[in-house]
Amino acid sequence: GKTATHVKAGLFHTCAVLSDGSGTCWGDSGGGQIGNYSNTYSNVAVSLVWPSQAANTSVPSVSGTARTGETLTASDGTWTGVPTPEFTYQWYACTTEVTSATQTVPDTCTTTSGTTDSLDLTSTHAGKYIAVKVTGTSTGTDPTSWLSASTTSQVKMQAENTSAPTLSGTARTGQTLIAGDGTWTGSPAPEFTYQWYACTAVVSSATQTVPDTCTTTSGTNSTLSLTSTHAGKYIAVKVTGTSTGTDPTSWLSASTTSQVKMQASATVKPTLAGTAKVRRSLTANPGTWTGFPTPTYSYKWYACTSKIASPTRNVPRSCQLISGATSRTFKLTVTQKGKYIAVRVTGTSAGTTGASWLSKTTTAKVS
After folding, report:
1. What is the DSSP string of 48-114?
2. Of 107, 119, 125, 289, which has the fewest Cβ atoms less than 10 A away?
3. How far, in Å, CA of 367 to CA of 361, rounded?
4. What's the confidence (pLDDT) of residue 237?
């Protein structure tokens, strides 16, 4: 029921304009001459297909894990258009989540370097929500763009140490050591846990590998109160930084530069031995002591007007210091006749304050 109003012949194909304004062609289509977006020869007339702009019917999306070192992949969605649309991509890093696909890029999103259908996540994306803009173009028509919904979470980045943990404080029992976290990167901001170590050798610099010379001690807070269990050890702290959703990263600090010192303490009190007679010698037995380093001993001898029945930390008023008597043994003279004799032993671990005990006196006065 249609007639041709115009006919035009090419070398190997022919086209006609029909009375209703439509068009038709037949013949060779090796270069798409017959206008139906086919390269196939047709010996029957086919209708011309006019180009139509790409239109999205199912929005683009992003898949993958939002973590540095991972790859996100763009899904084009579903599109119509003549000819079949071709796609280009632009990735965006956003400071807020894009909850649904949109044709308008929010002000909170800025372009990032990715222009293919995948994006390798790096530290530049950490803390951002990632979305992709897919642009569909049917040849001969204007392009159409849709921005996907973004990742539902910000890009996470594993905690990384940029300045090693440290510790501060005095390496002596009764004192407290404090862990310094150092400086870290990571997204979200890393949270820290602590494990303290007692080492038999100094740890001269921070390390990610705990030496065999170090064993865990009870401390798991950012501070450690030093006790007798730490005496003689070098102390270090392992700080573990964890950005939520990523693997933890640990660094062991350098240790204390010296072993933990412990004040001398007498577990068995000093005694003295010998006969309380003029020209005879008395000998001090310092007793048994703990402390680090191993205590050294000093001695002071006293002449007392009354007997001391048990060791004491304080020198009674009834006792007078015997000038120059500072050896472990003391030879009695007539000056001490009629007095009870005691010895005061002071144990000192280097780097700590000394501790003193006065022994019991001789059971009899010097005769």
Report:
1. ----EEEEEEE--EEES--BTT-EEEEE--EEEEES--EEEEEEEEESS---S-BSS--TTEEE-S-
2. 107
3. 14
4. 98
CA dist 334 and 341 (Å) reads: 13
Q: How far apart are CA 357 and CA 302, in angstroms?
A: 12
| Contact between residue 70 and residue 63 where contact means Cβ atoms under 8 Å apart | no
Which residues, given as ranges, of the chain have pLDDT below 50?
none
CA 156, distance to chain mean position in Å, is 14
pLDDT digits (tens, 9 = 90+) for 49-64: 777 899 999 999 999 9
pLDDT at 66: 97
CB 105 within 8 A of CB 146: no
pTM of the model: 0.77
Number of CB atoms found within 10 A of residue 298's CB: 15
End-to-end CA distance of the chain: 154
**Token pair in block for residue 297:** 């001993």
